[in-house]
From TrEMBL:
Name under which the protein is recorded: PqiA family integral membrane protein
Membrane spanning residue stretches: 72-92, 119-142, 162-180, 192-209, 282-305, 325-352, 372-393, 399-422
Protein encoded by which gene: yebS
Domain of life: Bacteria
Subcellular localization: Cell inner membrane
Length: 439
């Protein structure tokens, strides 16, 4: 069924948004398909401060209420200037019987790597160093391409893959958890470079919130499917193609050298069937669930007091914070380390079962559950970031020392795999069940 545009105009005096349908007129309209529910929508021209939503699932289809690439590139440059001070210089310091030890992001990653945990160190490096720097560089290069009027197809694809793995904001929370964890062992002091780290985290969060990789495609490759109301009526019988990779709606696909249909904008293959999408979701999800068992039963860290090791599992770490009286920190660690990974796996199993068994439950709640786990899943990396900072602060050879446990690599792998599963999940399969007539 062909829907019409729903525009959400942000009315400042009421501090709310009003949605209105625009009835078919003689105006030329831009046609797009919704990437979440597959609805066909006609969008008229948007003015500054407006955005177009799907009238069925309220997914943001197009927006004029976002920061320009010029402003985003300025923020990205500021982040790169602050990044060396945030990564390499000390953020926290502890005094262990007259011996001052500093904690830095890079120091923790390096010690974790050279002391026998290279895989865990690589996971932390990827999400706390490589992805943030690469994301900022990509934004800056995109701005350069915009100035010289080049079309960076591969860079737009890369920035879409990079964004979910930028976790610098989570490292800020991990720093606070680490401070609570070590305060009972030694006196803690804050270094002045922490200001640069906090500023970097805030700017990274702003950039993360204000830039949409899918919207950037329209800056370089605008949608061209603009039809009159009479022409849009004909699309009911023969709906246009849709590229899931770049949210592009078009009439005729291109063909690669093997004769396969590809998107004319990003050159992605269009033969992604429902069975392929389900396989790409099931495989990493089941692998992530398997990894959760050793992650919860093996020790994730060891604390050595006078060369006597004490292993801490995920749940015992939460209990230790409770015994210390840090109830809020215990809640954060419990939510990130135990509740979120398990609930994400359970919800994904439920959504996949709904598709396989054609369960016609409330589509509103199903989509809400999916959006929640897609947003909070990355916060499970909090534990690995705390481990990296602890490795930097409390090292071997001291009266108190700290070491990573075998559960860390399993836990990190579980977080990565379940994030890949939620990224590959196709919510349109839920809407197809919703569209079926009830028996």
């Amino acid at each position: 069924m062909l829907s019409v545009l729903i525009q959400a105009e942000h009315i400042k005096q009421y501090k709310t948004s009003m949605a209105k349908y625009i009835q078919p007129t003689t105006q030329i309209q831009h046609i797009a398909r919704c990437g979440e529910c597959d609805e066909l929508v006609a969008i008229s021209g948007l003015e500054k401060g407006q955005h177009a939503e799907c009238p069925r699932c309220h997914h943001n289809l197009q927006s004029k209420d976002r920061w320009s690439l010029k402003r985003c590139s300025i923020i990205a440059i500021s982040i790169l200037i602050l990044m060396p001070f945030s990564l390499n210089y000390p953020l926290l310091s502890v005094d262990l019987i007259g011996d001052k030890v500093d904690a830095s992001i890079w120091g923790g990653i390096w010690k974790m790597a050279i002391e026998g945990y290279p895989v865990t160190a690589f996971m932390v490096f990827l999400t706390a160093v490589f992805a943030p720097i690469s994301f900022c560089l990509a934004v800056i290069i995109l701005r350069g391409c915009q100035i010289i009027k080049r079309k960076p197809r591969n860079l737009l694809i890369a920035i879409d893959y990079l964004k979910p793995w930028v976790m610098f904001d989570i490292y800020l929370v991990a720093l606070g958890v680490t401070a609570f964890k070590v305060r009972d062992y030694a006196s803690l002091s804050i270094d002045s470079y922490l200001i640069a780290f906090i500023a970097t985290a805030i700017l990274m969060t702003l950039l993360f919130a204000k830039i949409n990789p899918r919207e950037l495609w329209n800056d370089f490759y605008p949608q061209h499917l603009r039809l009159s109301p009479e022409q849009t009526e004909k699309l009911r019988e023969n709906p246009p193609h849709f590229c899931y990779s770049c949210d592009y709606t078009f009439i005729r696909p291109l063909h690669d050298h093997k004769g396969r249909d590809i998107c004319p904008r990003c050159n992605s293959l269009l033969n992604r069937t429902a069975s392929m999408s389900l396989q790409q979701t099931w495989a990493p999800l089941l692998a992530g669930i398997v990894m959760l068992f050793p992650a919860n039963f093996y020790p994730i860290s060891y604390t050595f007091m006078n060369n006597i090791p004490t292993g801490d599992t995920l749940i015992s770490g939460v209990i230790s914070f409770i015994n210390m009286g840090s109830y809020f920190v215990a809640f954060i660690v419990f939510a990130a380390s135990i509740f979120v990974p398990i609930s994400k796996a359970v919800i994904m199993l439920y959504l996949l079962a709904s598709i396989h068994f054609n369960w016609q439950h409330s589509i509103k709640w199903q989509m809400r559950l999916f959006h929640i786990i897609h947003f909070v899943g990355r916060w499970s990396m909090l534990d690995l970031f705390v481990l990296a900072l602890m490795m930097s602060l409390v090292t071997r050879g001291q009266i108190i020392s700290f070491s990573v446990g075998p559960a860390a690599v399993y836990f990190g792998a579980s977080v990565f795999l379940t994030m890949i599963a939620t990224t590959n999940f196709d919510s349109r399969l839920l809407w197809k069940i919703y569209d079926k007539p009830a028996k």
